[in-house]
Q: What sequence folds into this?
C-alpha cells in the first residue's frame, strides 16, 4: 500500500485521509474533491445563512492549507467519472474538461449524499433551492443579500428545515414550514415534535403539517407553493430540504454492491465487495448497533467514525465500526431536542416490548437560580428491563446534548434501565441533582414498569 | 420485616426509606433525625449563604410534609444514643432529655460525617465556624446579617472552601483562602488547581498555599489566623472547612466493625457485620469500582446510591452497590472543574502505568458564537490502553459536567481510550463538534501513547 486515493473531501474522506497518514506517514494520499470547499461543515450551513458564522470559509472544519500540511494532496474541482477495479484506476475530469487517470493501491469512496428532490414541477425556478453544497449555500446568500426577500417557504420539517427556519427568522424573513408528516422532527415522537412546532410558533414561524407539496409556480418575484387539499402559499423564496440519498453512481458503475437502502454495501471494516475499495460516510449503509442490521444514517458524526475506520484498514488495520445507536440533537431557537436509540414505535418494530415513560425534571437543583425544566422520555423493554432509547427536550444551556450522550453511552454497552442508577455521575447544585435527571427518569421508568407488570 | 428504623435524615437515610417504601409499602419506616432539617442539601449551603437560594428551607431536597406523605414517620430532634443488637432496640433521646426505646426488625445507620476540626486553639471563638449542619449555616448567616463583616478567612481549599469563597465574595466580603497543600482543589492535579486559584484571584480572592494553620486568636471583632512560617492574617470571620470524617460513635459502641478509613465496614449489599444492620452514606466505607477496594468518599451522589441499595436489601432484596469511580464537579464563579477516575499520581499508586495527555479544545464549533475553550486531561494505561480517568476545566455553560459523565460512564464499563471514539455522541454546531471534545481528547491521548511507546 503506497498510494491511497480518496474520492470526496467531506467528513468521511478527510477522516480517512488523516487516519491513514497518522498511522502510515509514508503513504501517499490523494483526495479528489468536486468543488473547491473541502471538509466544510454541512451542518454549519444554517449558521452561515443566519449570519452567526461570519465568513463562508469558517464553515470548513479544516482550511485547505491545514489539509495539505497534513500531507494530503488535494485535487480540487475534479470530478471522478469512472472507477476501473481491474486496472486500479479512476478517471477524473477537471473543470476545463481535461480527463486524467489516477492509479490507486487503495481506494476510498466518500462521495456523500445528494439532496432528495421531490418529483414536482418548479424545483428549478429562480428562488427555489436545495441546501447541501457550498454552491447552494452561496446561491441562497446571494439571493438574500441582493433581493432581500421578506418571506420564505421551507419544504421539509427535519433538522435542516428547523435550523433554516430559525436562521431566516433571525434575518427578518417571515417563514412558513411545510411538512408532509403530522409533526415536524419525525426523528422524535410526534408529541415532542409538537413541542418544537410550538417553539417555532412562538418565534412567529408558521408550520403546516399533513400537506404534500405538488408544485411550485412563479409569477414575478412571487413563488406559489401548491399542495394537497388545495393548499396555496406565496413567498419570495423556497427551500426544499426533504432529506438526502446516497450518491452511488460512481460506485455502482464500478460494480460495487448496494444494500436495501440503495447505499453502498460495506462490512464493518468499511470494505466494499471489491478488494481494496472502501467506502464511508453518507454514501454507505451504516451498521446500527441496536438493530444489529444496516440502516441509512447520513450524519457527520457517523461519517467521521467510518472514515477513521476506513483509513486505518486501508493501510493494513483490522478495526471494525462499532455501529451507531441513533444519537442526534438539534437546537431550535432556545430549545434543544435530542434523541438516541429507539422510540416506542421503532422498538416495537424491532421486536421489543417497549415501555416509554416521561419524566419532567429540572436540569439542576431548583433552589439554585436558572433551573429550567426538561422532559426526558425513557424507552425500555418491559420483559428484560433493557434500555432501548431516550428523548430529551428542554432549554439550551441545560446540558441536554451531553445528557443524551450518557444514554447513548449506556446504549452502547447494552445497559438495563436499572443500571443507570449505578452510574457515578457528577453533581453540584448549579449543574445537576444528587440523582442526575438521567437517573431520575430511569427510576421513574422502573416504577412505571413495576406498576404495569 | 415489618419495621425499619433509620438513624439519620440526610441523603442516605432518605434514599433508604423511599426505596424500602417503594418496594414494600406495608413496611413501617421510622426515621430518627437529630435536628429539625431532614433531607436538606449540604452541598447547597454555600448557595444559601451567597443568597442565591432565598430561604433556608429551600435547601431541603424534600419538605417534611413530602417525607411524611411518603409514609415515613419522622422523629425530629431525636438523637440515637445506643444500639442494642441482641434486643434489636435503639435508645433515642428527645430534646427535652426524654429517653425512648425503639424496636427494629431492620436498622439502617445513615449517621453521616462531622466536620474535621484541626487540633488548634481558637476554633470555639465567636466568629469561627465549621459548616456542615443547618445549625452551622444559620449561625453563619446570623453573623453575616447582624455584624456585616467585611472580611473572612477560609481555612481549607476544597469544594466547600471554593464555593464559600465565591459565596462570600458575592456578598461583598474580602476573602482569603488558606490551604496547607501547594494548590487548592487537591482532587485535581496541581496545575489544574492552579487554574482555579487564578480564577479566584481574578475575583479578588487571595489564596495562600503551603501554610499550616496553628491558632486563631481574637481581639475585639478581629480574628487573627496564625500559621506556619510566621503567617498572620486578620479578618472578622473564619470558616474552617478542611474535610469530613465518618460519624461512627453509635456504630462502634454497638459492636460494628470499622474499616481502614475509620468508617463503618460494609459489604457491597451495604450490610454491616451484625445481622439486619445496614449502613450507608458518609458514615461508611465506599466500594471504589476502579480500585477494587474500599475508600472513604463522603458525597451526596454516593450516599443516595448506597441508601437506595440498603433500602432494597433491608426489605429482602439482594442488590449490590456497583461502586463509585470518583466523579466530582465544582463551579467556582464561571469556572467549572470536573474529574472522574484516577489522575496520574493515584493511577501509579494503584499499580497502573499511567499516561496523562492534555487537550485544549472548544466546547462547540468555534465558528458558532459563544464557543469557549476547555482543557481535558485524559489518563490511560500505557500498557493496556485502558481509560483510567479524566479531568476537565473550562467555562460554566460548556457542558463540562455531563462531559465528565461520559468519561464516568466509560470508566464504569472499563473501556479503553480507543473505544471512546466509537461512542455515538450527539452533535450540532452550537453544542459540539462531529468528534465530541471527549473523543478529540481520546485521539490525542492515543497519538501521544503511540509516539512515546
A:
Amino acid at each position: 500500500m503506497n498510494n491511497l486515493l480518496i474520492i470526496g473531501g467531506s467528513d468521511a474522506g478527510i477522516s480517512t485521509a488523516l487516519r491513514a497518514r497518522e498511522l502510515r506517514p509514508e503513504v501517499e494520499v490523494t483526495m479528489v474533491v468536486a468543488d473547491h470547499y473541502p471538509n466544510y461543515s454541512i451542518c454549519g450551513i444554517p449558521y452561515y445563512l443566519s449570519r452567526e458564522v461570519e465568513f463562508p470559509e469558517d464553515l470548513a472544519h479544516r482550511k485547505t492549507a491545514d489539509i495539505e500540511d497534513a500531507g494530503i494532496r488535494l485535487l480540487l474541482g475534479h470530478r471522478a467519472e469512472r472507477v476501473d477495479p481491474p486496472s486500479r484506476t479512476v478517471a477524473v475530469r477537471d473543470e476545463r474538461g481535461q480527463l486524467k487517470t489516477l492509479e490507486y493501491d487503495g481506494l476510498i469512496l466518500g462521495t456523500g449524499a445528494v439532496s432528495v428532490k421531490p418529483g414536482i414541477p418548479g424545483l428549478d425556478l429562480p428562488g427555489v433551492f436545495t441546501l447541501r453544497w457550498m454552491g447552494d449555500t452561496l446561491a441562497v446568500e446571494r439571493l438574500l443579500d441582493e433581493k432581500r426577500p421578506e418571506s420564505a417557504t421551507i419544504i421539509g420539517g427535519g433538522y435542516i428545515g428547523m435550523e433554516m427556519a430559525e436562521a431566516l427568522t433571525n434575518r427578518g424573513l417571515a417563514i412558513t414550514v411545510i411538512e408532509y408528516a403530522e409533526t415536524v422532527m419525525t426523528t422524535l415522537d410526534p408529541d415532542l415534535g409538537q413541542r418544537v412546532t410550538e417553539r417555532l410558533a412562538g418565534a412567529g414561524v408558521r408550520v403546516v403539517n399533513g400537506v404534500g407539496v405538488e408544485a411550485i409556480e412563479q409569477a414575478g418575484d412571487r413563488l406559489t407553493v401548491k399542495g394537497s387539499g388545495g393548499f396555496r402559499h406565496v413567498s419570495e423564496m423556497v427551500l426544499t430540504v426533504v432529506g438526502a440519498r446516497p450518491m452511488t453512481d460512481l460506485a455502482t458503475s464500478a460494480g460495487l454492491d448496494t444494500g436495501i437502502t440503495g447505499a453502498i454495501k460495506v462490512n464493518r471494516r468499511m470494505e466494499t465487495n471489491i478488494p481494496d475499495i472502501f467506502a464511508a460516510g453518507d454514501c454507505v449503509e451504516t451498521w446500527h448497533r441496536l438493530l444489529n442490521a444496516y440502516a441509512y444514517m447520513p450524519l457527520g458524526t457517523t461519517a467521521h467514525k467510518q472514515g477513521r475506520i476506513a483509513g486505518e484498514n486501508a493501510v493494513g488495520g483490522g478495526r471494525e465500526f462499532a455501529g451507531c445507536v441513533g444519537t442526534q440533537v438539534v437546537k431550535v431557537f432556545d430549545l434543544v431536542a435530542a434523541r438516541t436509540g429507539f422510540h416506542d414505535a421503532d422498538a416495537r418494530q424491532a421486536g421489543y416490548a417497549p415501555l416509554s415513560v416521561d419524566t419532567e425534571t429540572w436540569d439542576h437543583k431548583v433552589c439554585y437560580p436558572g433551573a429550567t425544566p426538561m422532559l426526558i422520555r425513557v424507552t425500555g423493554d418491559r420483559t428484560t428491563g433493557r434500555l432501548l432509547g431516550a428523548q430529551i427536550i428542554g432549554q439550551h444551556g441545560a446540558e441536554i446534548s451531553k445528557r443524551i450522550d450518557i444514554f447513548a453511552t449506556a446504549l452502547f454497552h447494552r445497559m438495563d434501565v436499572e443500571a443507570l442508577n449505578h452510574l457515578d455521575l457528577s453533581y453540584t447544585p448549579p449543574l445537576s441533582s444528587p440523582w442526575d435527571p438521567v437517573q431520575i427518569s430511569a427510576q421513574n421508568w422502573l416504577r412505571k414498569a413495576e406498576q404495569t407488570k
